[in-house]
Fold this sequence. Notes:
The chain has about 200 residues and is an alpha/beta fold. The protein is built from eight helices and five strands; from the N terminus they run αβαβααβαβααβα. Adenosine-5'-diphosphate binds next to α2 and α8.
Amino acid sequence: MTHNDIKWQQHDVNAAQREALFGHQSAVIWFTGLSGSGKSTVANALEQALVAQGKHTYLLDGDNVRHGLCADLGFSAEDRTENLRRVGAVAGLMVDAGLLVLSAFISPYRNQRELVKSFIAPGKFIEVHIATPLEVCEQRDVKGLYKKARAGQISQFTGISDPYEAPQHADLVLDTSVTSLQDSVQQLLALLKKRQIIS
Ligand SMILES: Nc1ncnc2c1ncn2[C@@H]1O[C@H](COP(=O)(O)OS(=O)(=O)O)[C@@H](OP(=O)(O)O)[C@H]1O
Ligand SMILES: Nc1ncnc2c1ncn2[C@@H]1O[C@H](COP(=O)(O)OP(=O)(O)O)[C@@H](O)[C@H]1O
């Protein structure tokens, strides 16, 4: 496929104007971690806190995106990369629209997270590692998937039969086995303020 015949269209309304209308910066708060680590729970609570402050948000969640935009994809390394490429592109558009985007994807490989970051304007990609230990995630087994993975009923399950490459330079690391949900949200709000994304 070649894009030589497709030219980028410049529009007159830009991201900075949309941000000004919303009264806050746009950014992506990218949660990465094992299944059951707490990505969705923390992202959901942060979104509630941001909306309560009048911020404009959208939460992209792996489980939900895989019902639509990425319904054709599985869990091979290639499919996960394509899943995250599409989500990265969508998140980039949402940032351009002026939104605070929260995302909850395992995103297990460093190069996949770098790919996502490449879609986002510089300084607007905040990586949050939900570093809850595997033993705790497995004990929680929110969806019964670890049990199935251990029984060999699910292949390529992250942490069991597929790798998880922890971020080396995350903007924030939260372990939900020792940090309360309320504390996680407070730490995230403080980080967004420090980065001057929200006031
Ligand atoms: N093989 C395998 N490995 C990991 N996870 C699996 C697998 N099969 C199904 N699931 C369920 O799919 C959810 C992960 O989807 P993601 O889109 O976040 O994964 S990825 O970023 O593309 O790796 C994940 O959701 P969370 O538990 O919310 O993380 C699982 O519920
Ligand atoms: N301090 C905490 N922070 C976030 N989640 C917690 C915490 N303590 C227990 N949990 C539980 O852990 C589970 C995390 O599941 P979930 O958010 O779906 O994880 P993920 O999206 O990473 O798969 C939920 O059942 C949640 O109630």
